[in-house]
Amino acid sequence: MKQLQPISIKRRLTLSILAALVAFLIVDTTVIYQNTLQSINVAFDRTLLASARAIGDTVKFENGKLSASLPYATLEVFEAVTRGRIVYRVTDFDGGFLSGYPELPAHNGVFPKRSPYAALAAFYEDRFEDEAVRVAALLQPVYVGSGGSDAYRMVTVQVAETLELRKTLAQQALRSTLDRQVIFLMLLSTLIWWLIARGMRPISALRRELLERDPDSLAPITTPASRELKPAIEALNEVMARLKRVLDNQQRFVRDASHQLRTPLTVLKAQVQNAQRGHVAPDVAFAGLADSVDRATRVVNQMLALAKVAQLDAEPAQVEALTNLHAMAQDLAVECSPLIADKALDFSLDVSGAEANGFRATGHEWLIRELFRNLMSNAIRHTPSGAAFGIDIRATGSGVLMSVWDSGCGIDAEREAKLFEPFSSGDPLSGSGLGLIICRDICKLIGARLTLRNRVLDEPGTSGLRATVVFG
Amino acid sequence: MSMSNGTQAEKPRLLVVEDDPALAQALALALSRRGFHVSQSTNGRSALDRATHEEFAAIVLDLTLPEMDGLDVLRAVRAHGTTTPVIVLTARGTVGDRVQGLRLGADDYLPKPFDLDELEARLHALLRRGGNVASVRQHFGALRVDEAAAVCYANEQALELSAREFAMLVTLIEKPAHAVTRERLWEKVFGDGRDAQPDAIEVVAYRLRKKLTGLGVELVALRGVGYLIREKRAV
After folding, report:
1. Pairing of strands B180-181, A322-324
2. Chain B residues with CB inside 8 Å of A344's CB?
3. How close A353 comes to chain B (CA, Å)?
4. Residue to substitute from B99, B184, B225, B231, interface A, most A β-carbons within 10 A
5. In the prediction, which pLDDT does B13 show?
6. How far apart are CA A288 and CA A267, in angstroms?
7. Residue A193 located in a structural domain
């Protein structure tokens, strides 16, 4: 995967604001330039039209002949004003050349019906002797006499000027606009950069604080922060709290594990040495070794189970699953059946109440299975050979209840107080002392309630314990 | 480490893939004594090479191996088209591993530490399922089952069992001292017969239990779950 460059909020904000600003200035400059261009054209067109009128006024019809005299003085004045060259052309009634420069192309467009000038005039761009020119064309009425509707006929007067001045003026206007905009842009970018840098100060402060912390510290950040930073800091604190839980769990686990694993290994070692020196008979020695191995196995499995519960605790999403209790209980009985067979126990799985919801309990199947594996293991261990134990599943009004009962010795008040302390198993040789801790942790995790009660039995001399889990 | 003797040709050939020398040696010894011809491999690459080039009745595969992970070996063996049954051994023991292993084509799965008798029983079950062994003789206490002949001997005396009782006994002996659910027993005993009642299995169990009386084995009911067969001894 491509490594992503970490983004700088400061640079990104500045660049995007500047980009928007530049885009705005470009549009603004374009509009200003267009407007300027139009104003220049209107002003110069007026002058051009005036010169066309001056020429038009000299067109006379006398003795059946058209004539136009050139008002050189007028044109010179115009030339001086526009600093360009001015040429003209007069076209007679029938489109024939009358006067002026024949090289100027005759006007062949139409005249707009409405015009801001009190005349029939049109303005357009054309070329004259390979130079771009602006042309004013004017329809000039000429009196031909004899009255009536035919008293006037139209000649066309065109005056064209080269565009030097217009161009120069437009360029000047553009340059001054651009100069202004660039200065504007520079001032604004500096201001924006400064404002953003100021706005980012709390982030730099937070960064400094994080860097200056004790590297081992997982304590929450308590510095007051701006409203926008608060959620990030809260999330950070949450992550650190979770990390702290995991670390604490790991530390406790390592401490407990070394103790719990060394003990059966020490026993094993002693047993092996005894056997090697012939202190015990081989079959007795082997039976002892087998027991020790079983015990070590159980301890390892339980330590790992405990670690896994803690791990699931740190990932709460794992707990949302639904588990079918009846199927799981059957499965668990099959799994434990070698132990049941070994002690010839009288096992029964009883299900009562409506199975409308299929006896489903909220919680990861592995967790619930581990919970009951431990309760079953306790029950099997404490029930004397040949005696009865079992599992009851019952639907209650609000949820499901699953209990494991045995025919052991139950618990007395003294032991009851210590039940949920690690490694306080009643029988140090058979239990790791972790089973009920695992059960308690799991119940906490899946929101179930675990109670241990001595069974009340009618028959004298019998006793037992019932461990009940109420699923919410 | 293979134990060779005159009957080697008839023994099912096993490939045991395990990198820990002590465990590999113990496994080879135990499985040879239990009637298998054992070949060994101590790393993933050689295991893959042998599994795809030689004929084995079954492969016992550890997951944590040098050079090539056991799951990768399994995947490659199956990708190669080799259908030899594979039983996976692992100390990882998480549910996820188990599911992944079975999905990648493992036929069975045994978490460490395991019982050698359990491994043998599972291997026999695999070989039977694969049809690699024409007739497996199962012993349990005084009982000896000849599945091909559909006869069960008690102290070398043929027991008079109905086909259903025999089917139930064979299913239970496959996993001695280990419960089999009623549902699975019903399937094995009645097949796809739809006429049998759900509780008909209790009747078969009742008759079988009576016929096993005095033979040193007993049928135990786990009420609400199923049945198991165990050797009767003083408790």
Report:
1. unpaired
2. 220, 230, 235
3. 15
4. B225
5. 93
6. 9
7. no
Across the interface, do A366 and B225 touch by the CB < 8 Å criterion? Answer: no
**pLDDT tens digits, residue range B19-68?**
888 888 889 999 999 889 999 999 999 999 999 999 999 999 988 888 88
Please check whether residues A79 and A158 belong to one and the same domain.
yes
B95: nearest CA partner in chain A: A366
> Which domain CATH number covers A428?
3.30.565.10
Half-sphere exposure of A320 (CA within 13 A, CB side): 4
In a mutagenesis test of the A interface, which of B222, B223, B235 is the best target, namely the one with the most A β-carbons within 10 Å? B222
Choice between A147 and A260, residue whose per-residue pLDDT is larger: A260
Q: Exposed, middle or buried, B212 (CB in 10 Å: 0-12/13-18/19+)?
A: buried
- Tell whether A323 and A442 lie within a shared domain: yes
Query: Same domain, yes or no, for A409 and A433?
Result: yes
Q: What is residue A421's predicted lDDT score, i.e. its pLDDT?
A: 63
**pLDDT value of position B70:** 87
Q: Are A226 and A100 members of one domain?
A: no
The nearest CA of chain A is from the CA of B189 a distance in Å of 19
Within a domain: A417:
yes
Strands A346-352 and A388-395: parallel
Based on the fold, state whether residues A162 and A21 are members of the same structural domain. yes
Tens digits of residue pLDDT in A403-449: 999 998 888 777 777 677 665 555 544 455 678 888 988 898 888 99
For residue A361, name the pLDDT band (cuts at 50, 70, 90): confident
**Domain count for chain A:** 3
Whether the CA torsion B63, B65, B70, B72 is positive or negative: it is positive
**Phi first, then psi: what are they for A80, rounded to 5°?**
-65, -45
- How far is B82 from B30, CA to CA, in rounded Å? 26
**CB-based contacts of A333, cutoff 8 Å, min separation 6:** A340, A347, A349, A376, A391, B179, B222, B224, B225, B226
Enumerate chain A positions whose Cβ falls within 8 A of a Cβ in B. Answer: 293, 297, 304, 308, 330, 333-334, 337-338, 340-344, 347-351, 366, 385-386, 390-391
* B230 contact residues in A (CB cutoff 8 A): 341-342, 344
Residue A43 belongs to what domain range? 11-171
Q: Same domain, yes or no, for A26 and A55?
A: yes
Residue B8: predicted pLDDT: 46
pLDDT value for A127 = 86
Same domain, A139 and A78: yes
Q: Is residue A187 part of a domain?
A: no
Q: B137-231: what CATH class?
A: mainly alpha
What CATH number does the domain located at B8-130 have? 3.40.50.2300
